[in-house]
Amino acid sequence: MKYTSTSKTLSMIFHAIIALGCCAMGLYFGFFVVPFAFTSNPYQFSDNLFAASFYLYLELAVIGLAFAIISGYGFVKAFLSFSAGGNSDQMVRDSLTAFICEGYVAAVTLLLNGSVLFNAMTGSETASITFPIVMCILLSIVLLIATNIPMVRMYDGHDYSPLLKGLSLTGGITLLVLSFETLLALIGLYTRSFTATTNPFMAQIVAILVPTLVAGALLLAAGILLKKKEASAKSVKFTTIALGAAMIVLSATFICEGAFEFIWQDYNYHLIGILNENAFLFPGLGYGIMCIIAAVILIGGGITAIIYSGQQTSTNSKGTKHTA
Q1: Are 271 and 260 within 8 A, CB to CB?
Q2: How far apart are CA 180 and CA 164, in angstroms?
Q3: Which pLDDT score is estimated for 64?
Q4: Phi, psi of 246 (to 5 degrees)
């Protein structure tokens, strides 16, 4: 498929808009809001915006920084495609793949908000959560459809390794940005912490930091090692195993956060709740229950991916013997 100068220009313009906008959002929430969430004046940079839980501010920081990186890459690819000669179409395809990767990240984030983090904006047990749940899930479905249509059009009958590589790198970058932001929050908590609640909040933040760091490193390594042209069966197997392992590792975060919700349900140690008098209000057991359910789904998905990678290798091996 040949890409015209119009495709290159539009891709470059939209990536520039996303990169600049998300960079501003990511820098603001990532370096001025999240690191101060547990200080003596946690909402000094967000009081005039909106009242939300630590999780929502963390999401905005991660999405902003991750999208700035991804769209920055897409912008560079689109810009270079004008003078790439024979590699022009491949560069445009890489730039468009960045949009697909961002669509998947946004869809997964909305699905997470609708299924697990539905108290992130309400922050109380009495507030209505029906509207954010329905809207987040509907928007997630719309984004998945809007993302899959161009993906199928671009890669149907073509080498899909650039897509697999892009998705792996995107997952790794997003999770590593998440671990970096939680590290900043942990530093802020350690240096200027709430006097009586330091250890419980540290435990919850570390439960996010460590698994996301490991899972992000796995996906990033899988993306880097995956060959971009006609990926071999061995490299695809490694990527699939890395994905499964990352899902299993990430389940530890949901297990820990869910367990903490049950253990500390009589105390104000809840990151999902809105801050009130140096404590995050308890929003109910829904978040903890959904964390456990999400962990079970992740473990099942991870095991399935690992088993599938073994079956795929076995099938390829048998096919090779038969051809010989």
Answers
A1: no
A2: 24
A3: 97
A4: -65, -40
Contact 164, 236 (CB under 8 A): yes
pLDDT mean over 282-292: 88
For residue 43, what are its two tokens? 């909402």
Q: Are the C-beta atoms of residues 61 and 24 closer than 8 Å to each other?
A: no
Length of the chain: 324
Those residues with Cβ within 8 angstroms of residue 114's Cβ, 6 or more apart along the chain or in another chain: 132, 133, 134, 135, 136, 137, 140
Q: Which residue has the tokens 């250890």?
A: 199
pTM for the model stands at: 0.90
Average pLDDT over residues 210-227: 93
Which amino acid belongs to residue 225?
L
For residue 129, give the amino acid letter: I
Please choose, from the candidates 174, 114, 166, the residue with its C-alpha nearest in 3D space to the C-alpha of residue 140: 114
Confidence of residue 233 (pLDDT cuts 50, 70, 90): confident
Kindly tell me if the per-residue pLDDT of 317 is higher than 60.
Answer: no
Cα separation, 69 vs 313, whole angstroms: 34
